[in-house]
Structure formats: C-alpha cells, structure tokens
Design brief:
- The complex is a heterodimer.
- By secondary structure, chain A is α+β, with helices and mostly antiparallel strands.
- Chain A has one domain (2-79): Mth169, Chain: A, CATH 3.30.1280.
- Chain A has helices at residues 16-27, 52-67, and strands spanning 2-9, 40-45, 73-79.
- In chain A, strands 2-1-3 form a three-stranded antiparallel β-sheet, covered by helices on one side.
- Chain A starts with a strand and ends with a strand.
- In chain A, 15% of the residues are buried.
- Chain B is an alpha/beta fold.
- Chain B has a single domain, classed as 3-Layer(aba) Sandwich (Rossmann fold).
- Chain B is built from five helices and eleven strands; from the N terminus they run βαββαβαββββαβββα.
- Chain B has a nine-stranded mixed β-sheet with strand order 2-1-3-4-11-10-9-6-7, sandwiched between helices.
- The model of chain B has no long low-confidence stretch (mean pLDDT 97).
- The chains are: A alpha+beta, B alpha/beta.
- Chains A and B meet through α1 of A and loops of B.
C-alpha cells in the first residue's frame, strides 16, 4: 500500500514559482495556460498488513501537523 | 545574563550570535545542541539563522520537532524571552510560537544585502532601547523571507501591536521598493501576543560592530538584555 500526498500553495498565497513557470511555458509557445501552481508530492510506502483506515487517520494527522503547513498550503491524501 | 543559542544541523549563524553576545555585549552565552531536552539556567534563548535540517520539507518544519524545541516551547509558555533570527524566525512560526509563515521571496532570488528597518512597536522586550526615529541598517540573507498571514491574523497583529519591524527606505518610508521579499505590510519581524517571543528575518547579530558596516543590530540585542535585567530586578524585589 502506498499513500500519496499532494501539497499545493493556498490561493491567497503568492506563488512566484507558479508564475515563473507559467511565463516560461508561454515563452516556449504553449498556449492556453491560465495558471500554474507549483507544490510538492510525497509518496509514503506503508508496511504490509497496515490497516487502511488507521493509516488514513494517522497520515491525515501527519499531513496537517507536519507534512504541510495549513497557514500557506492545502493537501490531498490518497491511499492506494 | 545567560543566553542559550540553539544549534541544529546546518545552523550557521550560531557563532555570529555567540560572538555578538559574548565579545561585543559582554554577556554569558553558550551553544545548546538540538538534542538537549533542558535549557538549564538560560535567561533567554536565541534561535539562530541557517538552514536547519537542510531546509528539507519547509524551512524550520523539521527543527520544530527537535527535543530542544519542546523545552523552548515550555520556556516560552512560562514567559521566557525567545528571539528567532532568520531561520530561527521560520522555526518559531512553524512551531506555532509566532503567527504567520515565511514563504519564497516574490522574485525567487536569494537576497543578501543591507536593508533598513522601521521599529513600529517600541514597547517590547526586543525594541525598548531603540531610539525613536532611528531606522536600523541591518543585513538580510534569505530566499524564503516573504511574510504571510491571513487577513484575520494581520488585523489581530496590528490591533495588538505585534508588528515590531517593517522594511523601510533610508528615510523611514514603507515603500514597495524597500520591501526586499514581498512581505505583507513590509513586515520584517513580529512578536507573539504575550510579547515574550519575537522573530525577524534580518540579522541583528551580524550588525554589532562598525567594521561590519553597521552596529545598529546592537539596539535590538541591548533591548533584550535591558528587558532581562528589568525582569531580574522585579523578581528579586
């Protein structure tokens, strides 16, 4: 089992990386890019036999407390 | 006074802080390794600049969970004076000891230069000695110093006079060009509601001798020393 956590900057936070990447895409000729948001992707491999519900709960806690900073970031957690 | 200067893996302004406190200001100061669980006899704590834990994940995110930070949190909760400088400021916001967060500079550049600071709130343990109308010339050296807080937090910071310093130009004007990193309201440093924990991105410890281009940083450290002395006298009485 694997947990996948995608962390993105909150809308209210200025994202200079996203803006710079958007500018570069436009300069390269890619069209139709309305906005770019640069975030982080974390993959966590879970030990065999881990209880899915318990892992979901624990990782939500870790994502809120440590893996993301709720003041500036949002996260999405998926376990597959 | 006894200062404890924290050391995390990749702290790099710890020696500057010790030098300023010991050799320039004549205080007793010692290093405190991140694995320590007690602050000993420390009267105040400096969380220095650097790149604690390689700035992995987010600046200050991992340092905040180190054993020594649990002791700092307890010390701060009991009213102890704590000053975070640069990465130390980031650690204190991540730890929830200070409001807001520090994000990537708006131009994505690492800024290493002297800036000017306007002291907004003179009534604090970190600003009490700064003469009114004195703009402090102090260096910055950071890539992630853009102060962010939501509107509600900003309103609270203003109402409680928790903004201690703002970036200004040489004449004390709070202009956008004087803002090196895009910080909201030009904020360079804030304190907590109880006014015993403060953090700032500029480096006062690197501006304590004229040889280094400015000794304005002394005003901040001397404010802290004066506040500690006052506290000791009050305690004795």
């Amino acid at each position: 089992m694997k947990a996948k956590i995608v962390i993105t900057p909150k809308k209210a936070v200025v994202d200079p990386q996203g803006k710079t990447v958007k500018g570069a895409l436009e300069q390269m000729g890619y069209q139709g890019v309305a906005a770019v948001h640069v975030g982080k992707y974390i993959e966590i491999e879970l030990a065999p036999g881990t209880d899915r519900t318990a892992a979901q709960q624990a990782l939500n806690d870790a994502a809120h407390k440590f893996l993301s900073n709720p003041i500036i970031e949002d996260y999405k957690l998926e376990i597959e | 006074m006894n200062f404890a200067v924290l050391q995390f893996p990749a702290s790099n302004c710890d020696q500057d802080a010790i030098h300023a406190l010991r050799d320039v200001l004549g205080q007793s100061a010692r290093y405190l390794w991140h694995k320590e669980t007690s602050l000993g006899d420390a009267d105040a704590v400096i969380v220095p600049g650097g790149f604690s834990y390689g700035d992995y994940l987010r600046c200050g995110a991992i340092a905040r969970f180190s054993p020594v930070m649990q002791a700092v949190k307890q010390f701060a909760d009991n009213g102890g004076l704590v000053l975070g400088i640069c990465n130390g400021f980031q650690v204190l916001t991540e730890a929830g000891l200070l409001p807001g967060a520090l994000v990537r500079n708006r131009d994505l550049q690492f800024h290493c230069e002297h800036i000017f600071l306007k002291t907004v709130t003179p009534d604090s343990p970190f600003t009490n000695k700064i003469p009114p109308g004195k703009w402090l010339k102090i260096p910055i050296a950071h890539g992630e110093g853009c102060y962010f807080a939501d509107e509600e937090t900003l309103a609270k910071l203003k109402a409680n006079h928790q903004v201690l310093w703002q970036y200004c130009d040489v004449n004390g004007n709070l202009t956008d060009t004087a803002n090196p990193n895009g910080s909201l309201l030009n904020i360079a440093g804030v304190c907590n509601e109880h006014r015993n924990v403060a953090g700032l991105m500029p480096h006062p410890e690197r501006a304590c001798e004229p040889l280094l281009g400015s000794d304005d940083g002394k005003w901040i450290l001397e404010s802290l020393i004066a506040a500690l002395e006052k506290k000791t006298v009050a305690h004795a009485a």
